[in-house]
Amino acid sequence: MSNFCINFKKTMIPFLWLILLTHIRWVHTADLANVQISQVQNIFILAGQSNMSGRGGVINHGQNDMVNETWDGVIPPECKPNPNILRFSAGFQWVEAQEPLHQDIDLGKVCGVGPGMSFANSILKRDPSIGVIGMVPCAIGGTNISEWARGGVLYNHMIRRTEAALQGGGKLQALLWYQGESDTETLEDAKLYKFRLKRLFKNVLHDLQSPTLPVIQVALASSIGPYKEQVRKAQLGINLPNVRTVDAKGLPVGMDYLHITTLAQVQLGQLLADAFLQTQTTQAVLLPIQPVTSNAPKSCSNFVFDLLLSPFR
């Protein structure tokens, strides 16, 4: 990483967090009182970084290392809106879900297709009696797991949004987690990843008073730095009884070698749905299972970089 990138990161990250923190506080104080009672019966948290937020279909038209991103607007049939699928907006209100799910959450980025809509549609297709699904988007692109530590902005935001979503009724069904690409940049972060990940999951279950909540994490398909295998080993080695692991290795990655493609997001959502439905058949005793894996061929499309973070990613 060049000195320019390092200095840019040191100066810009605090500024970006200030903007995010201001946004979170404003939303909380202005809109929390407006949480509406809904018919949501099944609530899912979506958290992590950009591949959970969704970059499927995001195209960079920039030249000479300039960023000029747009989303192509292509929505696969598996990700179409459904009146039985809602999302918890940045304004703390339930609205009908549609792509991009994180457009008002992952600020300063161009968001595209993520795994959430495919996940929800897959569950409804396989179990139409499950009732209305409500998703709580919380993912923020480019974030290191240390930034999700208890007491930090991202962690507090996730817990606050989830608690607000539950005020209208419904049952918290699972945490969907896809993160780790940013922790492949340094050996220190890669070595600490397993400890930090286990601590995060334990804290979330404790603070949401949901000790048996299923946690479905995704093992990396791509990375920013050279320590992907170390982080993947940590993810695949998690042995907490509530945790299921979906292995994204082999899913198609775009031309930036970081973000998985739209079709890959569709497949990932279906794999996440498979893993969640498995937990419903073992509610009495949640035991670790083998990762759900993909044999999808690798391909390249969609040149994607995270806006503002691209100089050091």
Automatic annotation (TrEMBL):
Supply the name of the protein: Sialate O-acetylesterase domain-containing protein
| Statement: the UniProt record of this protein carries the keyword Signal | yes
Molecular functions (GO terms): hydrolase activity
**Cited InterPro entries:** Carb_Esterase_6, SASA, SGNH_hydro_sf
Residues annotated as signal peptide: 1-29
The keyword Hydrolase is assigned to this record: yes
List UniProt keywords, sorted A-Z.
Hydrolase, Signal
- Tell me where on the tree of life, at the top rank, the source sits: Eukaryota
Domain Sialate O-acetylesterase: where? 41-278
